[in-house]
TrEMBL record:
InterPro entries: GAF-like_dom_sf (IPR029016), HrcA (IPR002571), HrcA_C (IPR021153), WH-like_DNA-bd_sf (IPR036388), WH_DNA-bd_sf (IPR036390), WHTH_transcript_rep_HrcA_IDD (IPR023120). Negative regulator of class I heat shock genes (grpE-dnaK-dnaJ and groELS operons). Prevents heat-shock induction of these operons. GO terms for biological process: negative regulation of DNA-templated transcription. GO terms for molecular function: DNA binding. It comes from the Bacteria. Keywords: Repressor, Stress response, Transcription, Transcription regulation. Residues 108-343 form the Heat-inducible transcription repressor HrcA C-terminal domain. Belongs to the HrcA family. This is Heat-inducible transcription repressor HrcA.
């Protein structure tokens, strides 16, 4: 959402969000005047809040009440009005290192311990996905023509797990229809080439073949195979362990936003019985990150696709072994969240777990 705010509007939006995060109470212009050094009159603050309301960044829960931030208001606050709390990030990393000595812990105990520390520090529900199996390597690959214009790509791993896809044979662009037997021979040649180059490689490396090594007559298979093998890699990666460690439920459910029993029940059901849905949300397909930076994903309110948590904010990041994403760590809480602290906690935990797994 692109909203251009003046410095004054930004300052008043920032103050409104900060007050609501701290108190869970709608805020009016007099309160902001008393609590924040805004340098303007109560009437000016009231007029600016009216402008912010018209822009969809604030709203009144009741006609006689003050204003509170909308999901869009929180988004502007997170994207434009705060900076990462590097001091807190460092403190969290030190706390994890002090309380969790990874050489003394089993994998599961390490993740359980990290989840409990994060829940305590953030006051939110902490979610840590179990690491994915990244050791599976390719044993055999075969491309088989199953009908005119259709090919099945079959990948077998060292554990004899099979992944397959049905694909459309790419057009050569010359309009000529190839002989079925010729296509079979070409597919066998390409399969042999791929096996010689990919056998023994991790499934996560399948999309990294140097396609310039293909003979010129088979070059038109290049983009077709690159896309297909990347999809096989993605499918194998996301078909593994979807277990999520959950901590801190009792703490966050004391927040006033979760006073309705039905809402609490749907969230708990999601956390306990529908983890696969939540896993797909918290553990996105891995993306490249800027060197030296831990990428943090922030979903606010309705940005969450799962209905039970559309009144919540979910902050997550991946932990890695080198360049390979193993799992995710995240916190779930009300949209009235201390975002600076939550982002710092998640970033520090992901960094710590990455170091531990490396």
């Amino acid at each position: 959402m692109q909203v251009q705010l003046t410095n004054r509007q930004q300052h008043i939006l920032w103050a409104t969000v900060r007050h609501y995060i701290a108190t869970a109470e709608p805020v009016g212009s007099k309160t902001l005047l008393e609590e924040y050094n805004l340098g303007v009159s109560s009437a000016t603050i009231r007029n600016v809040m009216g402008v912010l309301e018209k822009a969809g960044l604030l709203y009144q829960p009741h006609t006689s009440a003050g204003r509170i931030p909308s999901d869009s208001g929180y988004r502007i606050y997170v994207d434009q009005l705060i900076t990462p709390n590097e001091v807190l990030t460092s403190q969290v990393e030190q706390a994890l290192q002090k309380r969790l000595k990874c050489e003394d812990w089993s994998l599961e105990a390490l993740l359980h311990g990290a989840a409990q520390i994060l829940a305590t520090l953030s006051g939110c529900v902490t979610l840590i996905t179990m690491p994915q199996n990244t050791t599976a390597v390719l044993r055999h690959l075969q491309m088989v023509q199953i009908e005119a214009g259709k090919v099945m790509l079959i990948v077998v791993t060292d554990g004899y797990e099979t992944h397959s896809m049905v694909l459309d044979v790419p057009s050569r662009g010359d309009g000529n229809k190839l002989d079925v037997e010729l296509i079979d021979r070409e597919l066998q040649i390409v399969s042999n080439f791929l096996n010689s180059h990919l056998r023994g490689k991790s499934l996560l490396e399948l999309a990294n073949l140097d396609w310039t090594e293909l003979d010129r007559e088979f070059q038109y298979y290049g983009e077709f195979l690159k896309t297909s093998l990347a999809e096989i890699s993605r499918r194998s990666f996301t078909s593994g362990n979807t277990q999520i460690m959950v901590r801190g439920v009792s703490e966050v459910l004391r927040q006033p936003e979760f006073s309705q029993l039905q809402q609490v029940q749907t969230i708990i059901q999601l956390l306990e019985e529908e983890q696969e849905q939540l896993w797909r949300l918290i553990f996105e397909e891995p993306e490249a990150e800027e060197a030296g930076k831990q990428k943090v994903t922030i979903r606010i309110g309705a940005e969450n696709i799962l209905e039970p948590i559309r009144s919540c904010s979910l902050i997550s990041s991946t932990y890695r072994r080198g360049a390979i994403a193993l799992g995710s760590v995240g916190v779930l809480g009300p949209t009235r969240l201390d975002y600076e602290s939550a982002i710092a906690v998640v970033s520090a935990a992901a960094e710590y777990l990455s170091e531990a797994f490396s």
